[in-house]
Amino acid sequence: MNLDLLSRQLIDRFQHGMPLCAEPYKEMARILGCREAQVMACLEEMDQAGTLSRIGPVFEHSRAGASTLAALAVPAERLQQVAEHVSQYPEVNHNYAREHFYNLWFVLTGPDRQHIERVLEQLEKDTGLMPLDLPMLTAYRIDLGFALGGSS
Amino acid sequence: MKPGLSPRQALALRRHLEAGLPRVSRPYQALAERIDADENQVLAQMRLWHEQGLFRRVGLVLNHRALGFTANAMLVLDVPDALIDEVGQRLGRAHGINLCYQRPRRLPQWRYNLFCMVHGRQRAQVEAQIQALLEEHLLSDLPHQLLFSTHAFKQCGARFAPSPTGAPTHG
């Protein structure tokens, strides 16, 4: 089976869930009708290409600890430097520049809410900028899967 | 079966899982070795956590940018409080919306209380899709903004498990 086709099948079939057993890659291969070595090679290739972030659990924020979406309004000439500073925190897992007055947006996670608040306070001290703190109140949709669809 | 991992082993396992499963034939065996446990204990713990809802899902976690989904927009709306659940549920079900959350307003700096993520391959297509969506749901008149991302400085899995010292991990 060619790797492109196999990677699409792996994504479609296993991004929402994969077998939870001692030999998950072998089981995935069995389901797709190929060999474990092909699955491994394909995952390796996806990892090298950067399309695969990792394999395994995505933690439920509300059960795993605390999280918030934070934003800073950074003067344009400081954006790169402030963004790099924010990214250094292990508590930050997504950090994007966006087109807006609030131009730096990042997700903070930690074991509890106090931990998040300490990081926000520290960030404010470090940067002199007041972060917006926007914790989730209600989730109407949480799925993070992608439909690859056709070649469009 | 009860997993029988000590709290310390369970925490160490969570920290390893946040970095991802090893790509070896028996990944849980490999993780078990790192925390001085056996494979069955780790698998039992995984199943228990799964049942308890600690995981949203267990699977391949993809980088949407590397897959070509480079037009990534956050749609924010200012929805009257009385309508937020109805509008949130409708948009949450809509095709093309990957995430839909209610978050607090922070007046006067921030008035928007509903956040939707839309990923697409081209900016114009995402703009058109969102416009059509708002029209379809008769929401075009609500104050809203579309925040396209221009650069990803960092994108990785969340770290929830505290560091061994329990202190913030940034100096």
Could you characterize the architecture of this molecule?
The complex is a heterodimer of chains A (152) and B (171). Chain A has 152 residues and is an alpha+beta fold. Chain A folds into two domains: 3-49; 61-134, Alpha-Beta Plaits, CATH 3.30.70. Chain A has helices spanning 3-14, 24-32, 36-49, 61-64, 79-88, 113-127, and strands spanning 52-59, 66-72, 92-98, 104-110, 132-134, 138-141. The longest helix of chain A is centred in the C-terminal third of the chain and has 15 residues, at 113-127. Chain B has a four-stranded antiparallel sheet with strand order 3-4-2-5. Chain B is α+β, with helices and mostly antiparallel strands. In chain B, 32% of the residues are buried. The radius of gyration of chain B is 21 Å and the shape is elongated. In chain B, α2 packs across α3 (39-52). At the A-B interface, α1, α2, α3, β1 and α4 of A face α1, α2, α3, β1 and α4 of B.
- SS strand fraction of chain B: 15-25%
Q: Topology as H/E string of chain B?
A: HHHEEHEEHE
Task: Give the C-level CATH assignment of the largest domain in chain A.
Answer: Alpha Beta
- Record field, number of beta strands of chain A: 6
CATH architecture of the largest domain in chain B: 2-Layer Sandwich
Describe the strand arrangement of the main beta sheet of chain A, using strand numbers. Answer: 3-4-2-5
Please report the distance between the alpha carbons of the first and last residues of chain B: 41 Å
**CATH architecture annotation of the largest domain in chain A:** 2-Layer Sandwich
Number of domains of chain A: 2
Q: Report the total helices of chain A.
A: 6
Indicate the overall shape of chain A.
elongated
Helix share of residues of chain B?
25-40%
The stretches of 5 or more residues of chain A where confidence is low (pLDDT under 50) are none
The CATH topology annotation of the largest domain in chain B reads as Alpha-Beta Plaits
Helix proportion of chain A: 40-55%
